[in-house]
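Good morning,

Attaching, inline, the backbone tokens for the sequence recovery test we're adding to the shared suite. The designed sequence is right after.
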């Protein structure tokens, strides 16, 4: 989206000013980049209302730059510095261990401008010879680079791409040229990362329908164009296929292009064993189409229940469908509250009131505020006095806005497994999440022991983002998850499914492992601004992909029953 593009420009400006030694300019640009990325509306609308100065970090000089970008699509100061540093900061910043100054050193000394250049320099051992690097740094960069590329160079987190994909779909619908438009592929299955986008549509005039796609401002160019399929490049860095389907085959095509590949192969084998044929045009008995208009017809024709897209990974869902034993998985509309959010009081960008208003606008019935505790200084964690003052304001805002807001904390698990705040302060909280951010080692027993001690403390309600992974940046912590699941079940402590697109934590496979242990789950957006509150959808998707039912997710409860479930 436009906000993200502008935020990235200011992030790069911050990097380049840091290289230039302009400390305060760098801090100012980084601050405004964070503010713009966290806005809940298009900054162009804010500009039209002459309210840019109301954005945190925007003064006269930065306002002028924002207006130039809105009007001209460029910022002079950025262009001048980019000539000096023609570097792909966005991609190189994703490599753990590379900050602005190290990226500058790589460029000045070795001419490295992108990830490909970095890989060549690592393989030829040129980096270890640079001042401030050395062999250990080179080895760590090599590991980080491989981790970054492990999901493939064109795969991006679903949550990062989802708003653009939905905007593109809405753009097609609003054109009036289509009778039906549906997103398929891994987006419809709500996979954590996606490599491309598949859109299926029905249109009376296929020629005009194909033309309208390239007019979207989400599209950067056309790859190939045919009578019933057009492929374009999207500005988010992946391709999109628009397929124009006949109405009588739409259900079959939707099933086929939703996937997964393994799921489809299994279905086709069942069809063959029944003397039929299944493809993207329908289910056929000899040459007669017996199903194809809807997906439900396809599954029914094969003698099974309809299978929700999130389950279609060939991990037992087909066998369950044949036996009419599929779980009744939790629905997106059943989530009543968000149990993991941050405000400007620690490391968020919006106030308590702003987060509450957006939560209500999103259809939620309550919200839990879980700002960081004091030991996480990088996130401006609060001490006991800070939380007491914040909790007073939460209660006041909840009363004024007539919207239930609960008092909580994302509590640091300290090095020895003790907790960052005392029992007196925690007793005043409605909801306590505990998490590992610091002092994590390569020793599974040590890490697990810290988490287990927190679980057994009797002072917490849940474990936040349990594996600690950051997709493409950091592997999961070394933990004995089976032991943690068992301890949570025994102590009545929830496991969180975190909807931050770069966390997606717990992963669906671990959720699936835990469904019969008695453990309960809590779904949180980990929102640091009002826009992030939509991350709750991605947490729900993981719950669905992990086969969870409504009764296993505590924030499907009404506020009254949610409070009753929070005994510590």
């Amino acid at each position: 989206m436009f906000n993200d593009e502008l935020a990235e420009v200011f992030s790069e400006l911050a990097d380049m000013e840091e290289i230039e030694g302009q400390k305060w300019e760098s801090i100012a640009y980084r601050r405004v980049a964070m503010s713009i990325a966290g806005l809940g509306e298009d900054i162009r609308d804010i500009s039209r209302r002459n309210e840019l100065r109301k954005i945190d970090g925007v003064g006269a000089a930065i306002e002028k730059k924002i207006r130039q970008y809105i009007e001209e699509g460029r910022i002079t100061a950025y262009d001048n510095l980019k000539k000096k540093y023609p570097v792909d900061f966005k991609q190189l910043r994703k490599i753990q261990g590379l900050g602005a100054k190290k990226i500058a050193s790589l460029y000045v000394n070795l001419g490295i401008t992108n990830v490909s250049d970095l890989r060549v320099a690592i393989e030829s051992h040129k980096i270890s010879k640079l001042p401030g690097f050395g062999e250990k740094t080179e080895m760590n960069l090599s590991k980080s680079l491989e981790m970054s590329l492990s999901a493939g160079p064109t795969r991006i987190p679903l949550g990062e791409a989802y708003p653009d994909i939905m905007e593109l779909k809405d753009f097609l619908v609003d054109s009036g040229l289509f009778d039906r438009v549906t997103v398929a592929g891994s987006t419809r299955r709500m996979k954590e990362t996606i490599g491309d986008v598949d859109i299926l549509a029905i249109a009376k005039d296929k020629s005009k329908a194909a033309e309208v796609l390239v007019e979207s401002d989400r599209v950067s160019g056309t790859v190939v164009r045919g009578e019933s399929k057009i492929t374009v490049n999207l500005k988010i860095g992946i391709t999109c296929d628009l397929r124009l389907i006949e109405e009588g085959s739409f259900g079959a095509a939707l099933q086929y292009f939703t996937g997964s590949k393994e799921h489809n192969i299994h279905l086709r084998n069942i069809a063959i064993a029944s003397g039929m044929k299944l493809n993207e045009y329908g289910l056929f008995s000899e040459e007669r189409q017996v199903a194809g208009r809807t997906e439900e017809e396809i599954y029914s024709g094969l003698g099974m229940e309809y299978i929700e897209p999130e389950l279609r990974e060939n991990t037992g869902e087909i066998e369950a469908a044949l036996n009419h034993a599929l779980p009744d998985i939790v629905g997106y509309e059943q989530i009543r509250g968000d149990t993991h959010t941050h405000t400007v009081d620690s490391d968020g960008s919006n106030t308590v009131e702003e987060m509450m208003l957006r939560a209500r606008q999103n259809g939620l019935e309550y919200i839990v505020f879980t700002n960081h505790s004091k030991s996480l200084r990088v996130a401006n964690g609060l001490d006991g006095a800070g939380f007491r003052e914040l909790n007073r304001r939460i209660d006041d805002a909840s009363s004024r806005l007539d919207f239930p807001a609960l008092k909580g904390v994302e509590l640091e698990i300290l090095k020895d497994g003790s907790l960052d705040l005392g029992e007196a302060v925690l007793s005043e909280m409605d909801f306590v999440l505990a998490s590992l951010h610091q002092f994590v080692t390569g020793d599974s027993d040590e890490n697990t022991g810290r988490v287990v001690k927190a679980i057994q403390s009797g002072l917490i309600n849940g474990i936040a983002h349990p594996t600690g992974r950051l997709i493409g940046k950091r592997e999961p912590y070394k933990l004995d998850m089976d032991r943690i699941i068992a301890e949570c079940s025994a102590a009545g402590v929830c496991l969180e499914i975190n909807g931050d697109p770069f966390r997606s934590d717990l992963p669906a496979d671990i959720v699936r492992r835990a469904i019969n242990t008695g453990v309960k789950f809590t779904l949180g957006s980990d929102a640091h601004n009002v826009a992030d509150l939509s991350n709750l959808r991605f947490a729900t998707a993981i719950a669905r992909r992990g086969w969870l039912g409504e009764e296993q997710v505590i924030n499907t409860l009404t506020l009254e029953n949610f409070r009753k479930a929070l005994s510590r």
